[in-house]
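Quick one, tokens below:
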């Protein structure tokens, strides 16, 4: 497992690249960086409380892409704060506002899912299953 600070830096870098490339630029590059920051999120979670604190700190990042991703990824740990920060991002440019509206809609419908690594494969889980799996690690 990488150092937490290195993981957070890589997460931030990949979130920003993914955000910039997602809207009409290079979708292959966007997809590659989505996979990178998803894996970073999974590894950040392995740091338990320290990882959660690192995500919380990203809520104040200068990039709206990072604030959105951190708010989404914080939801399993602090639903109230995650939703509050998502709502603050709803008018952001570059597709972030659109993503926020979809994310909140999926949340309300109980369909929002979170990445988790199981047996070397990344799978998506409901928030409750995600938290159960996190607690078993």
């Amino acid at each position: 497992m990488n150092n937490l600070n290195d993981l957070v830096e890589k997460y931030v870098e990949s979130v920003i690249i993914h955000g910039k490339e997602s809207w009409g630029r290079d979708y292959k590059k966007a997809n590659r960086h989505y996979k990178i920051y998803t894996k970073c999120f999974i590894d950040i979670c392995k740091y338990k409380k320290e990882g959660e604190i690192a995500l919380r700190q990203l809520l104040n990042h200068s990039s709206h892409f990072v604030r959105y991703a951190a708010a989404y990824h914080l939801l399993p740990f602090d639903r109230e704060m995650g939703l509050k920060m998502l709502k603050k991002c709803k008018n952001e440019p570059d597709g972030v506002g659109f993503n926020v509206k979809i994310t909140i809609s999926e949340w309300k419908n109980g369909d929002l899912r979170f990445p988790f690594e199981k047996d070397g494969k990344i799978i998506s889980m409901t928030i409750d299953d995600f938290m159960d799996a996190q607690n078993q690690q």
